[in-house]
Amino acid sequence: xxxxxxxxxxxxxxxxxxxxxxxxxxxxxxxxxxxxxxxxxxxxxxxxxxxxxxxxxxxxxxxxxxxxxxxxxxxxxxxxxxxxxxxxxxxxxxxxxxxxxxxxxxxxxxxxxxxxxxxxxxxxxxxxxxxxxxxxxxxxxxxxxxxxxxxxxxxxxxxxxxxxxxxxxxxxxxxxxxxxxxxxxxxxxxxxxxxxxxxxxxxxxxxxxxxxxxxxxxxxxxxxxxxxxxxxxxxxxxxxxxxxxxxxxxxxxxxxxxxxxxxxxxxxxxxxxxxxxxxxxxxxxxxxxxxxxxxxxxxxxxxxxxxxxxxxxxxxxx
Length: 318
Description:
CATH topology: Neuraminidase
CATH architecture: 6 Propeller
Strand content: over 45%
Helix content: under 10%
Number of domains: 1
Order of helices and strands: HEEEEEEEEEEEEEEEEEEEEEEEEE
Radius of gyration: 19 Å
Shape: globular
CATH superfamily: TolB, C-terminal domain
CATH class: Mainly Beta
């Protein structure tokens, strides 16, 4: 057993998790020494701006914001329908989210101070999981406009739209995220596999390639702030109650395990300076929001209170 794995085992035992039957074997080509061991009260570098996320309370899911380094939450949406999957616009002044108002998923936008919520696209299709391009001029989203679920792109100024990725009638796609230079999009798809895999799309050519391995499920991909890496969720273990977060280097294909708590760990997103990630985990029960330093794996919890939290995103800074 490597030094990194021994240290992880000791930390997990100290935290009282060893009795849960934690498997110590790391996935192939993943460095187990990179994995974080447990939440702590270590100081975390403060980040200006806001974090947006969804929280479910008494069966109602709404969009909330809070200071990026932790603090009081503020509820933005109050519709009885499910409001979820928020992402900031590049100027940081508004948030696009998906809502089941009207019976199926539709795309809406709301300002960071709240107020009136505006529907982005008027049509009868199921459309959700949207992400703005870095320049704010385009938006990618999942739509069944052609019958089968596909990734679509719309140019906001002209309204011109087109499908980007169509994987077939029975395929589910999701989690699109633009690269910082606006040239690529990562997303997940279950095309050809039981379970999702992470794929990389070149927007100009329309060419895609698979990033995640064949031997495990993968979803929730997010580019690093410099565009050199992609963090995503890996379901390596054949259980319903555990997942890991890995970091994939695009230039080399090398992967590092960065969160492997004995829990469901989802929704990674890099801080603005790229030194940390925010993510959600069930390590303390229901999903809560955490931040982790990538340099040493030290983490702390950001949210408390009733109701699970999912899908965080950082507010861009001017």
